[in-house]
Each structure stands twice: as structure tokens, then as C-alpha cells.
């Protein structure tokens, strides 16, 4: 009994894997026939599907030759358990007692009241994109989209079942996958917003809504539908995260940020322009959205968020009037969050000033590596998590898929080693936790000791890696600041001003320029001041240090920025 797969690579399925015909046209024919199971497929449809872009001079002859080659291959590989039959209305596969993964998938999912186990087994049949090893110009593209839509619908059903059973972590993982697979799927995004809200991650829920709202507007010119709008409104009606000390644990994205959240929300209730600065990956976006939601609940107003960092990373310019365009017409009291403006200080200031002048009830919250420098601006700086909060975050995130990973004494030993590589940056901690799905704590610690790049290469739900976020901040530096940062990154983990002046000054950097440059790097959150009883020292967080080291990977660059003493 044989089984043919199309939900991934096309070929005969076995316990050892997939066996596929070598010629692409033969794979295309096998896939086209298997997709229609035992039904006859007209010759005209097969010719159009396989040779739509380059129809041969003799299409019927080419099809007959391809059928002959496939028939011989099936005889050799399937031993007669699957036959290719010629009929009056076309060609069909005679599966005898065999099947295809598509038939199995539809059988498991065709009943509306199917069990969660059935849905799980159905999704497990997928090995990749349909007809993955068939050239795109030899596949029925409409069929591919139909199959992907069927899978997406099953993912949503499975996620709803997990939600109904209270397994929010499982539902969250499924829905992130669904939203990445189809960035325009409003139903999947609405479900994800509901799951994140149920887990207490209100900031993440609002961020998901804002991203799809902007995507729908930019790419389709439409507003969110009623299902998505309702999910968003439910989040806005959630009780404030800072209602009091008896609200229980903070969501993981805000671990250790309770006091910062309260202070920032207070600022938004009494100031017109507030900026939140901090190093890349420190969690400014999550804190800003949570604080805006909390303040909006107190002020009884709405929140609009604009993600400039993601736009900058994807090459989108801040156009004149763009900020005004995202705000509702006839707005009264309103909070505008401008997230990740980076080095675009002058642009953002120019866009904000007329809005503030003509909208007396508008409050603006900006996040970036440096302050905007506007009159009456209130500023807050967000630093890395404390050792205790960083440990709590790593344990809580790892527990989502390995509940007892750090209960064992031998694994707790590796906590401090893992956290040292993250520098207390929540983004790096989240990435480290995700790597524990594959590696044990001791193996991960050893891997990071050899090469910490895997933390830089990890990304968030938007697909933006930590390296890209650091590069975004680094790109805003002046040339001398970038040179100084490169030289400072080769100093010991903590260093003093005298060491920086002595070891980093060179022909292109005088000692006074080193001091001014250090001030600029601290202002832009790429160097952290550390106060001790014996005086102030400075440090560069490990992920930023690793990023800078990568910029100087080749020997000539290392020589050109070499220090006097090391």
C-alpha cells in the first residue's frame, strides 16, 4: 500500500522519507494528479498547469511522453500498488488501497466537530509548502493558495480549541505561526490579540493590532473589519495593568517594569511630550504601549501607535503629514505613541510640533535611543533588568515549553552564565529562552560562550532581529562616535573615563573628543554608566559589544582601530 505526498515535497511517502521523481516535469505531473486523488484530470488542464509558461510545439506528445516516464517510475518505486490510468476524460491515479496526505488531511478536518487530536494529526501531515519541490511555473498557483487557506483555517480551529481548554501558551504559538503565514488574516490576528490579552500581555496585543491595521491600510487601502476591531476594543477595556499591588504577576514582557510603568503612565497624564530612551532590545516598545494603555484608561481616551523603527528597517520614509494622517479626524484627547524614531529626531520634531500646536489635548510618547529635545519634554530612561528580574523572565519564558527546566539544581547553575550573555536585555533573554526549546541549559551556555551571535540573529514577532535593532541605533552615530564605540568595545567589561581617554585617543580622536564622544554614546544609550561607591564607571552591554566586534571582524579593520595598550 503506497501513499503520495503533496503537502510539502511531492513524492512517495515512507518511514524513511520521501522518494521523488528526478525530472521536474514528472514531479509536476505526479503532484497535479495526486492533488485530485482518484478523479480523472483532463489532458488540457495538465498541459496548462505543467507548461503554461513554455508550451511545447507538440503539447499532446510532450504530455504522453511525461505520462510514460511517470508510469515507469511508479512501477519501479511503488511496485504496482499505485497505477497511472488513461481514460476517456483524462488521466488519473489508481491508488488501490493507498492514499495521499491531502486525502488524509481533508478526512481529518472535514467534520466541523472534529476532535483536537484529529486537528493535531492533520497539521502534522504538512511537511512544508504544497508542491515544494516542483518549479513554481509548473504548479497550479490557485490550488496552492486554496490548500494554504485550508491549512490556515485548521490552525485557527486548533487554536480556538486550545483557547477553550485554557491552554493559552499553545494557542499563542499556533497563532503567531498563522499570522506570519498570512499577514492579512484578520481572524488569526483577532484570536492572537484575545490570547495575548488573556495572558495579561496587553502591550503585545495592542502592538499586534497596530501592525495589521497599518498593513491593511498601506497594502489594501482598507480599515480593520468588525472581528478585529472588536478584539481591539476588548483589550482597551481591560483593567489597567497598574491598578495596584494585588493584581498579581506582570506579563513576561513587563517583568521587573512595574515601577517604570507606573511612572511613565503618570508622566502621560500630566505632560504633552514624553520620551522613553534606552538601549536596543531593552523593551521600550512594550513598556510604552502598556503605559499608553494605562494612561488612556485614566484619561478616557484612545491610543494610536506608529512603529517608525520597523519602517526605517524596511526602507520606508517618514513622509510629511504621515503622523497627522494616522490620527482620527476631529480628535479630542488622544495619546500618540511614536515608537523607535532612532536617529530621525529632526524629522519627528518637525512632524510633532504642528500637531502639538493645533491639538491642545494631544499627548505624544516617543521611544528612541536619545531624547527629542523639545520644550517642556519629560524624559525617562529604561535600563537593563536587574539580575533577579532577568532570572525571573528567563525562567518564566522557558517554563512555557519546559515547565521544570530550571527546577533541577544542575540546570540552575547555568542561569547566571546564560544571563551574562544577555546583559539584562529582555529581547536577548526572550531569544535565549526560545533556544532552550532545542538546547539544554549547559549546551546553550557552552554555545554562547563559543559564539554569542545566535542572540543577535534571533528576532521577534515582526521578524526584526536584535542585530538589526542595534544596527538601527548604530547607524544614527556620527563617524567619530562610531569609531569611539569600536575602540571602547575592546576595553574591559567596565572602564573609567581615564582609561577611555588614555587607551582610545589616537590621531583621529583627541582626548577631549573621546570625552565628548562618550557623552554622546551615553546619551544614545549605547554605553551604560555604572555608579559605584568609588566612582562612576561605564560598560557596553554584551550584545552590543558582540555586534561591534562583528563590524571589525577582518584583520585590517582590527589593526586600523587597534588600541595603544591591550
Structural notes for this entry:
This protein has 566 residues and is of the alpha/beta class. The protein folds into 5 domains: 162 residues, Winged helix-like DNA-binding domain superfamily/Winged helix DNA-binding domain (Arc Repressor Mutant, subunit A, Orthogonal Bundle), CATH 1.10.10; 73 residues, Serine Threonine Protein Phosphatase 5, Tetratricopeptide repeat; 134 residues, Rossmann fold, CATH 3.40.50.300; 80 residues; 84 residues, Arc Repressor Mutant, subunit A, CATH 1.10.10. Helix content is 53%, strand content 11%. It contains 27 helices and 14 strands. The strands form 4 sheets. A 5-stranded parallel β-sheet has the order 8-9-10-7-11, sandwiched between helices. The chain is elongated, with a radius of gyration of 28 Å. The C terminus is likely disordered.
Topology:
Layout: E1 3-5, E2 11-14, E3 17-19, H1 24-34, H2 43-51, H3 59-78, E4 83-87, E5 90-94, E6 99-100, H4 101-109, H5 116-124, H6 141-164, H7 168-181, H8 186-198, H9 202-220, H10 226-236, H11 258-270, E7 273-277, H12 284-299, E8 302-307, H13 308-313, H14 322-326, E9 334-339, H15 345-358, E10 362-368, E11 378-381, H16 387-398, H17 409-412, H18 415-422, H19 426-435, H20 441-450, H21 453-457, H22 466-474, H23 479-488, E12 494-495, H24 497-504, H25 511-523, E13 528-532, E14 535-539, H26 542-551, H27 555-560
Helix pairs in contact: 1-3, 4-5, 5-6, 6-7, 6-8, 7-8, 8-9, 8-10, 9-10, 9-12, 11-12, 16-19, 18-19, 18-20, 23-25, 24-25
Amino acid at each position: 500500500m503506497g501513499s503520495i505526498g503533496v503537502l510539502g515535497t511531492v513524492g512517495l511517502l515512507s518511514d524513511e522519507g520521501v522518494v521523488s521523481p528526478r525530472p521536474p516535469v514528472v514531479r509536476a505531473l505526479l503532484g497535479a494528479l495526486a492533488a485530485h486523488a482518484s478523479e480523472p484530470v483532463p489532458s488540457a488542464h495538465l498541459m496548462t498547469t505543467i507548461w503554461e509558461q513554455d508550451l511545447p510545439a507538440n503539447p499532446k506528445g510532450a504530455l504522453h511522453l511525461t505520462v510514460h516516464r511517470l508510469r515507469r517510475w511508479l512501477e519501479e518505486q511503488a511496485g504496482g500498488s499505485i497505477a497511472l490510468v488513461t481514460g476517456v476524460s483524462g488521466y488519473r491515479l489508481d491508488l488501490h488501497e493507498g492514499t495521499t496526505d491531502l486525502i488524509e488531511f481533508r478526512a481529518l478536518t472535514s467534520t466541523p466537530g472534529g476532535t483536537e487530536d484529529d486537528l493535531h494529526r492533520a497539521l502534522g501531515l504538512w511537511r512544508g509548502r504544497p508542491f515544494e519541490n516542483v518549479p513554481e511555473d509548473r504548479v497550479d498557483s490557485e490550488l496552492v493558495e486554496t490548500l494554504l487557506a485550508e491549512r490556515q483555517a485548521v490552525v485557527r480551529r486548533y487554536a480556538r480549541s486550545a483557547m477553550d481548554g485554557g491552554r493559552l501558551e499553545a494557542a499563542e504559538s499556533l497563532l503567531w505561526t498563522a499570522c506570519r503565514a498570512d499577514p492579512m488574516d484578520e481572524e488569526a490576528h483577532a484570536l492572537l490579540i484575545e490570547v495575548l490579552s488573556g495572558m495579561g500581555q496587553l502591550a503585545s496585543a495592542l502592538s499586534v493590532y497596530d501592525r495589521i491595521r497599518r498593513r491593511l491600510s498601506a497594502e489594501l487601502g482598507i480599515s480593520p473589519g468588525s472581528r478585529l476591531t472588536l478584539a481591539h476594543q476588548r483589550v482597551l477595556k481591560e483593567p489597567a495593568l497598574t491598578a495596584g499591588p494585588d493584581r498579581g504577576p506582570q506579563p513576561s514582557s513587563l517583568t521587573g517594569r512595574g515601577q517604570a510603568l507606573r511612572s511613565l503612565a503618570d508622566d502621560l497624564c500630566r505632560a504633552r511630550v514624553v520620551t522613553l530612551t534606552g538601549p536596543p532590545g531593552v523593551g521600550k516598545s512594550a513598556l510604552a504601549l502598556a503605559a499608553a494603555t494605562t494612561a488612556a484608561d485614566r484619561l478616557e481616551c484612545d491610543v494610536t501607535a506608529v512603529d517608525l523603527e520597523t519602517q526605517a528597517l524596511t526602507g520606508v520614509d517618514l513622509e510629511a503629514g504621515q503622523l497627522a494622517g494616522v490620527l482620527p479626524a476631529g480628535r479630542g484627547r488622544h495619546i500618540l505613541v511614536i515608537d523607535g524614531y532612532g536617529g530621525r529626531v529632526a524629522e519627528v520634531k518637525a512632524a510633532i510640533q504642528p500637531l502639538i500646536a493645533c491639538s491642545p489635548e494631544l499627548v505624544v510618547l516617543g521611544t528612541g535611543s536619545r531624547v527629542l529635545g523639545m520644550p517642556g519634554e519629560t524624559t525617562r530612561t529604561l535600563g537593563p533588568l536587574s539580575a533577579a528580574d532577568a532570572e525571573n523572565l528567563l525562567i518564566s519564558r522557558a517554563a512555557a515549553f519546559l515547565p521544570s527546566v530550571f527546577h533541577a539544581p544542575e540546570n540552575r547553575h547555568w542561569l547566571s552564565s546564560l544571563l551574562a550573555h544577555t546583559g539584562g536585555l529582555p529581547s536577548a533573554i526572550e531569544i535565549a529562552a526560545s533556544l532552550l526549546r532545542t538546547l539544554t541549559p549547559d549546551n546553550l551556555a557552552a554555545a554562547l560562550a563559543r559564539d554569542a551571535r545566535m542572540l543577535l540573529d534571533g528576532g521577534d514577532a515582526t521578524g526584526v532581529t536584535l542585530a538589526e535593532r542595534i544596527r538601527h541605533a548604530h547607524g544614527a552615530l556620527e563617524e567619530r562616535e562610531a569609531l569611539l564605540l569600536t575602540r571602547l568595545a575592546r576595553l574591559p567589561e567596565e572602564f573609567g573615563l581615564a582609561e577611555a581617554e588614555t587607551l582610545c585617543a589616537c590621531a583621529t580622536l583627541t582626548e577631549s573628543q573621546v570625552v565628548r564622544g562618550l557623552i554622546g554614546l551615553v546619551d544614545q544609550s549605547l554605553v551604560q554608566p555604572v555608579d559605584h561607591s568609588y566612582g562612576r564607571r561605564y560598560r557596553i552591554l554584551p550584545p552590543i559589544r558582540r555586534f561591534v566586534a562583528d563590524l571589525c571582524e577582518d584583520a585590517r579593520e582590527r589593526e586600523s582601530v587597534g588600541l595603544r595598550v591591550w
